[in-house]
Specification:
20 helices; 540 residues; single chain
């Protein structure tokens, strides 16, 4: 064992033997001891920023970095091998079957996700690392129920998304403190696979989630430089795409690219988390109350402004401007409903490619054909960096525009309750990605539903009937709907659903909503993995 490093769970012991070697743990300890204090300072800065927003401060483009935004000469690194054409990217968790199916899907890249589509049980995290280790080495083939799963000769380029800066990894302590989930996921994948990926003509590629400030991007860049030096890999080998999925980050896109410019592979419109952040960061702003989440589409003012600014920013700096997720999945038992759903996918992808995006996300292999057809027709080269969108002028007021046509409806509120309960119950049970009403839902959707319910209660919003939304009304509907959750999410266990019910009822009564449900509920996963409560920072 490595001095100061303790593995606190015995789950997935076979995977642990391969992944948590002494050499790997020594690297993790070096990363933790070098960067943990900076991470904690940046997380504290988030809270300071939120207090200022609650006090009436306005989000705006940072004045101290105006020179970075105004300097036209700097550009980001060229695409890494395999990232030149990213017109369709498929995303999903890191279980073995998903990894093979996604890599074989025909999409250009696969984002293997340790974040919002994975519930971070230790088994999921460690087995996921082993699955990627095997995929990189083309030794992932297996059989299940008589069916063979075999990697194709030309799989998609692999990109990995670690957890966000806010999440800890309580199953691994270093110097009696839990490690960062971000650094745990990144470090293990990089340590085991970076040299092998380079040898095979690819590279260590990442998606970086949930950032709120350019200094958080600077921290990632420092981690990259440290990790490359540690393994003797040339600097600027890593490539990272940042998800712009918080509203503070929308005001700092150029700064984030600048900090990562020698490792950057672009920005992505993380639309669902962006809506969540739009509500959460403006929790003290009564004017920011939004209608049903189905009404907050990509064509409303604030979302359209965010998209146009992202495309303009990326192409100005010569990197990819990636579109967002189409969460629709095929409807096998209703051809008419399936046709309507697939037309929504087609329209969404057409909007993206004609706006100037260089690629898009899908959640299901069968959606690949539609997305690929749209991009192949309208994007004839590997990207659209030449679409500069120089006519775009986006102000702070545009990004903060709360004019979203729609109502808060009984159906919308009840749908939010169902989604919140179903996803939260599934997550506690170890499943971070579930189909609900023919949409593939992950943590981002559950976060929107949670903060919307809080917001509507907090500001005594009215339904389309005129009735005020109160805790008593939501309690009543939660109790009515919870018995039916297992029908729409069959894998949810009674005990986990009970926790989800109590959690949601607690959230709608808080002065302010919690920052992340995943942070709140992590102690349940850690306890199931045999970890003492002292190694989890958050509790209900």
């Amino acid at each position: 064992m490595v001095a100061g490093v303790n593995i606190l769970s015995k789950v997935a012991e076979n995977a642990q033997a391969v992944i948590l070697t002494d050499d790997a743990l020594t690297f993790l300890a070096a990363v933790h001891r070098t960067f943990e204090s900076t991470r904690q300072a940046l997380l504290a800065a988030r809270q300071d920023s939120q207090r200022k927003l609650d006090g009436g401060a306005a989000l705006d483009f940072p004045p101290e970095t105006e020179h970075i935004r105004g300097e036209p000469s700097w550009h980001c690194a060229p695409p890494g091998p395999g990232l030149e054409d990213r017109r369709v990217e498929i995303t999903g968790p890191t279980d073995r079957k998903m990894v093979i199916n996604a890599l074989n899907s025909g999409a250009k890249t696969f984002m293997a996700d340790f974040e919002d589509s994975s519930a971070p049980t230790f088994a999921n995290m460690i087995n996921g690392q082993l699955n990627l280790y095997d995929a990189v080495r083309r030794q992932i083939d297996f059989e299940s129920n008589g069916k063979a799963y075999k990697l194709s000769d030309k799989p998609a380029t692999l990109i990995v998304r670690p957890r966000g800066w806010h999440l800890d990894e309580p199953r691994l302590s270093i110097d009696n403190s839990p490690m960062s989930g971000s650094l745990f996921d990144f470090s293990l994948y990089f340590f085991h696979n970076a040299k092998e990926l380079i040898k095979r003509g690819s590279g260590p590629y990442f998606y970086l989630p949930k950032m709120e400030h350019y200094l958080e991007a600077r921290l990632w860049n420092d981690v990259f430089l440290f990790a490359q030096s540690y393994l003797g890999i040339p600097h600027n080998t890593i490539r990272a795409t940042v998800l712009i999925e918080t509203i503070p980050a929308a005001f700092q896109m150029e700064e984030i690219l600048f900090e990562l410019r020698n490792h950057s592979s672009g920005l992505n419109c993380g639309r669902w988390d962006y809506i969540f952040s739009f509500i959460k960061k403006r929790r003290a702003d009564r004017s920011a109350v939004l209608p049903d989440r189905k009404d907050v589409t990509m064509t409303v003012g604030c979302m359209d402004s965010y998209v146009r600014l992202l495309i303009q920013t990326c192409h100005k700096r010569k990197v990819a401007a990636m579109g967002g997720m189409s969460a629709q999945i095929p409807i096998k038992d209703d051809s008419k409903a399936n046709e309507i759903a697939m037309e929504k996918v087609r329209a969404d992808k057409l909007r993206e490619v004609t706006a100037g995006h260089d690629g898009t996300w899908i959640a299901h292999p069968l959606i690949n054909k539609i997305a690929m057809e749209v991009f192949n027709k309208h994007m004839l080269g590997p990207n659209q960096y030449h679409v500069r969108r120089e006519e775009v002028r986006v102000s702070a007021a545009n990004l903060l525009d709360t004019n979203v046509p729609g109502q808060i409806t009984t159906e919308g509120v009840r749908s939010n309750i169902e989604c919140s309960l179903a996803y939260t119950g599934a997550w506690i049970g170890g499943n971070g990605c579930i189909p609900l009403n023919y949409l593939m839902e992950d943590a981002a959707t559950a976060e929107i539903t949670r903060v919307q319910l809080w917001q509507w209660v907090h500001y005594q919003s009215r339904l389309e009937t005129g009735e005020i939304i109160t805790t008593a009304l939501l309690d009543k509907w939660i109790d009515e709907l919870s018995p039916g959750i297992k029908k729409i999410a069959p894998g949810v266990k009674d005990a986990d659903l009970s926790v989800a019910v109590d959690y949601l009822k607690g959230q709608i009564r808080k002065e302010w909503p919690s920052d992340f449900l995943t942070s709140d509920l992590m102690p349940y996963l850690a306890a199931k993995d045999g970890v003492e409560a002292k190694f989890t920072r958050s509790a209900l």
